Amino acid sequence: MSEIKTQLVVLGAGPGGYSAAFRAADLGIETVIVDARDTLGGVCLNVGCIPSKALLHVAKVIDDAREMADHGVSFGEPKIDLDKVRSWKDSVVGQLTKGLAGMSKMRKVKHIQGYGKFTGANTLEVDGKDGKTTIKFDNAIIAAGSEPVSLPFIPKDDDRVIDSTGALEMKDIPEKMLVLGGGIIGLEMGTVYKALGSQVDVVEFLDQLIPAADKDVIKIYQKYVKDKFNVMLETKVTNVEAKKDGLYVTFEGKQAPDEPVRYDKVLVAVGRKPNGGVVDADKAGVKVDDKGFISVDKQMKTNVEHIYAIGDLVGQPMLAHKAVHEGHVAAEVIAGQKHYFDPRGIPSVAYTDPEIAWVGLTEKEAKEKGVDVETATFPWAASGRAIASSRTEGMTKMIFEKDTGRVVGGAIIGINAGEMLGEIGLAIEMGADAEDVALTIHAHPTLNESIGLASEIYEGSITDMP
Ligand code: FAD
Question: From the CB of 12, is ligand 1 less than 6 Å away?
């Protein structure tokens, strides 16, 4: 058992953890980062955001190539070499984890591989491949993230039942696949498998896919994908029986089939649970709730003065960019700066086809919070760029505070929605109102124009720019 002393230990090397560690080191704090994985990057880089986007890129190229046949250019049916697809995805991850390792080394952040648990208010014990290490620390940041939720009635140890990590491994392309849960992760993976040739069914307990987004936005998505996926809303899975020839799934609810349905694979994507409870934070005196969340104040401090927590385990939305900003705040506060995590909006993006993106208040959130809002939408059927790209299903929706006209939210559905969303995010953070956005000259023809045009519509102008 070796022992080290450090000013700061960061437990978990996901986007929150490595961002905090790097910022702390830049501010002159001696920092150790601990992760059970060999590589830095956490869920996002190793088995989340990045590998899924690499595969979604493959899916997009396949779908675009197929669509081009309608515009006079045929490439024929794609031949899929799954080994090559997999190794390309792995190379994307490898490139980025290598980059992080380099940045960590450059900053002299010490990386210890191993499973860490608190043993006291100033000690963490790490059990790794190179043995056990006791770390004595002045400050700690808990950044242990989250893991997929499993369901009790789903067979365990059957490799035909997979979670997002299993789906990203791409061992095969199942003929028929059920995505259990109509949230972002399930739909992104469903998009990939569909493009690669699977028949994909999606079952969602609630009355819309991606329940956090506004219904009018999601309705457009549901309409667009109705020929792609068989979506069963207000329906739940009550049993999965593993048989030799497949998984037999029993459904209950509005769109439930009468008989159990056979699938080659079931992807369970019903959410993620925080890892607050698995790091023995209580032994350091840190309060963890029943679900595994750790509560923090706006400086990311837990109830223990010198212990901070960030990322998925401090609450929704469980997103990488939220973790990164929280990580920066925690490191800066430890360095003695008076910084706070207090964003006006955190963007959410489903990198599906089409993409669905929103930031700030949704209309339904505004209602819940009693904020009086008005909305304006610009349908992409009137956008020259969308028409030229043959993707007119999109819509841009701006949400304004009624009394002031200030932009308080926005949502976009359509190709590249995730890239476009930044402008609305900036408008919200800068306190811009509808006139500010409407008077900003957007290049023509771009999809971004739709943000200006929706704001012009709100201002009362009748749009004359196709
Ligand atoms: P994590 O990334 O969860 O990292 C936590 C780390 O802590 C892990 O590496 C784990 O090994 C380590 N750890 C846990 N317990 C211990 C312990 N006791 N000892 C040592 N190490 C430990 N978010 C986005 O913003 N955009 C996306 O496009 C996106 N796509 C996603 C796609 C998928 C398939 C998944 C699963 C998630 C996706 N997410 C996305 C969510 C995103 O990955 C998370 O929000 C983000 O990774 C959270 O960062 P974090 O720093 O809280 O911790």
Answer: yes
Long-range Cβ pairs for the range 316-321 (8 Å, 24+): 317/212, 317/346, 317/348, 318/146, 318/272, 318/274, 319/346, 319/347, 319/348, 320/14, 320/15, 320/44, 320/48, 320/49, 321/15, 321/346, 321/347
Which residue, among 183, 192, 114, has the nearest Cα to 349 in the 3D structure?
Answer: 183
- The C-alpha R_g of the chain, in whole angstroms, comes to 24
Instruction: Read off the tokens for 147.
Output: 């893991």
Q: Per residue in 167-187, pLDDT tens?
A: 999 999 999 999 999 999 999
How sure is the predictor about 426, in pLDDT bands with cuts at 50, 70 and 90? very high
Q: Residue 375: what pLDDT?
A: 97
Strands 229-232 and 373-379 come out as: unpaired
Among the atoms of ligand 1, which is closest to the Cα of residue 116?
19
CATH number of the domain enclosing 438: 3.30.390.30
- Asked whether residue 32 falls in the same domain as residue 91, the answer is yes
Sign of the C-alpha dihedral computed for residues 79, 184, 348 and 325 taken in this order: negative
- Respond yes or no: is residue 444 known to be catalytic: yes
Question: Does 414 appear as a known binding residue?
Answer: no
Q: Is 408 within a domain?
A: yes
Q: How many domains does the chain have?
A: 3
- Domain extent at residue 418: 347-459
Pocket probe mutation, ligand 1, options 22, 39, 43, max atoms within 8 Å of Cβ: 43
- Does residue 7 sit in the same domain as residue 99? yes
Pair 143, 285 in one domain: yes
Query: What was the ipTM of the complex prediction?
Result: 0.99
Q: Is 30 annotated as a binding residue?
A: no
| 265 and 277 in a common domain | no
Token pair, residue 4, equals 């080290």
- Does 293 share its domain with 377? no
